[in-house]
Write a structure and sequence with these properties.
Elements (H helix, E strand, L loop, with lengths): L1 H17 L5 H5 L1 E6 L5 H17 L3 E5 L10 H10 L6 E4 L3 H8 L8 H6 L2 H4 L2 H5 L2 E2 L2 E2 L2 E7 L2 E5 H6 L10 H13 L3 E4 L6 H23 L9 H14 L11 H9 L3 E5 L3 H8 L8 E5 L6 E9 L8 H11 L2 H11 L15 H12 L1 E4 L9 H17 L2 H15 L4
Helix pairs in contact: 3-16, 11-12, 11-18, 12-19, 18-19
Bound molecules: beta-D-glucopyranose (BGC).
């Protein structure tokens, strides 16, 4: 789209030049191309708020929304990769910190540092060091963070649970979940809504379950090569994950993650296991937190927080550097994060926001972030190299069909050997 637009702008300018009469309009038009995968109802609405704020501050800049549909960025990243390989980078693109940013883009010299912005905007003082470290290579920062998601959340339709006399008191163990699931199944309700038309969405259930069984130390050991991927605990997690899938909706592979959330919203299903972009969808649908929907840590993960942060880069060699810098300055600001994150369903990357602008869930998540063990997500590209992430997705695809625990863990062992899991 952008390529087409750019080539048509270039074409117009060129034609005008050839005719000796420059088409000033086309040549001088200012643009900003923002590449992301924010296309679900709430994602797009939240992104639009940023666009509106940007336009207020940057009159006359035309924003090209190059969002690619496909939750988790599964469809966007390959397109981005091709564009980078062709030397046609977007001005700025969505990225997760950690491996995804540092090994995919920074190592390939695809983005320019934004260290000066961190200094001039005072972000070093208000963004937690643990987050800044994940966007830093050799002393330079390479992305501006706009929000932080919690991956390990189990969401539920409160009325469906009440109707079925299921009470959740602060935490939920796997056994309690399975007991509830049996009850729901008997009542003809889908216990666990899953939308894995993008395989990452079910991989997220595995990831959360892995953390629930291993705990944060086990997670760090696993992703630093100290614990084997066929350790009995990993097998136990895979087994539990397989049991969870016994309670999913039969049409799971036809649904996207937000389709699964809609099943919970519409009381067709009781729970969904998904990061807190789910909150954005619930709120967008007009549901009230703690009244229509509730949440609880994914079983076993209380005290831990799977970090799924969103940042934007400064594309090296992209055409609209000044416009992209203005975008980054905006999304790193307090005003933008206070406006965007409550709609997106994320907590701000900054710690100096007005918390009263955030609802109960997000305040709960902020409190969790401040004291929990923070662990990077593998499904969202932070904990391991892209090739490992891909191999895990492939292994999960097979597992969803055959539920073979040994097969899954053997594939993960092989992937760790082939691609490594240490930065
Ligand atoms: C992103 C979120 C997004 C989710 C679903 C994650 O990878 O970090 O911003 O809402 O995918 O698309």
């Amino acid at each position: 789209m952008k390529t087409l637009l750019r080539s048509s702008i270039l074409g117009a300018a060129l034609a005008a030049l050839i005719q000796g009469c420059p088409d000033a309009d086309a040549a001088n038009r200012k643009t900003l191309e923002v590449f992301s995968w924010w296309t679900s109802g709430s994602e797009a609405a939240a992104l639009d708020v940023l666009f509106r704020m940007y336009k207020e501050k940057n009159h006359g800049v035309e924003i090209i929304n190059a969002a690619v549909t496909g939750g988790g960025g599964s469809a966007a990243r390959p397109i981005l990769q091709t564009r980078l390989a062709e030397g046609n980078p977007p001005d700025t693109w969505q990225t997760h910190p950690g491996y995804e940013l540092l090994a995919r883009y920074v190592a390939l010299e695809a983005c320019d540092p934004v260290t000066d912005l961190y200094e001039s905007e005072g972000w070093n003082k208000v963004v937690p060091k643990s987050l800044i470290d994940e966007v830093t290579k050799s002393g330079d920062m390479y992305a501006v963070l706009v929000g932080v998601h919690r991956g390990n959340v189990l969401w539920y339709n409160k009325k469906v649970l009440e109707k079925n006399q299921i009470k959740i008191d602060g935490t939920l163990t796997f056994d309690q979940f399975f007991a509830a699931a049996e009850k729901l199944k008997a009542a003809g309700i889908v216990p666990l809504a899953v939308g894995d038309s993008g395989i990452w969405a079910t991989a997220e259930i595995f990831e959360n379950t892995l953390l629930g069984v291993l705990g944060p130390q086990g997670w760090h050991d696993l992703f630093s090569g100290k614990l084997a991927f066929d350790d009995p605990k990993v097998k136990q997690a895979a087994q539990t994950y397989g049991r969870l899938l016994d309670y999913q909706n039969p049409d799971h592979s036809a649904l996207s993650w937000d389709g699964a959330v809609r099943a919970v919203i519409g009381a067709k299903a009781a729970f969904t296991c998904m990061g807190d972009w789910t909150y954005g969808e619930m709120i967008k649908a007009g549901l009230k937190e703690n009244q229509d929907f509730g949440w609880v840590d994914h079983p076993g993960t209380q005290g831990s927080f799977i970090v799924v942060a969103d940042g934007f880069t400064l594309g090296k060699g992209a055409p609209d550097t000044a416009e992209a810098v203005a975008w980054l300055r905006l999304i790193g600001s307090k005003q933008a994060q206070e406006a965007f994150d409550p709609l997106k369903g994320a907590i701000p990357a900054r710690t100096d926001v007005d918390k009263s602008k955030f609802g109960d869930y997000l305040q709960w998540s902020m409190a969790s972030f401040a004291k929990a063990n923070l662990v990077p997500s593998c499904v969202h590209g932070e904990a391991a190299p892209a090739a490992f992430q891909q191999a895990m997705n492939d292994a999960i695809s097979l597992f969803v069909a055959d539920k073979d625990v040994d097969h899954l863990t053997a594939a993960l062992v092989q992937a760790a050997k082939d691609y490594g899991v240490q930065r």
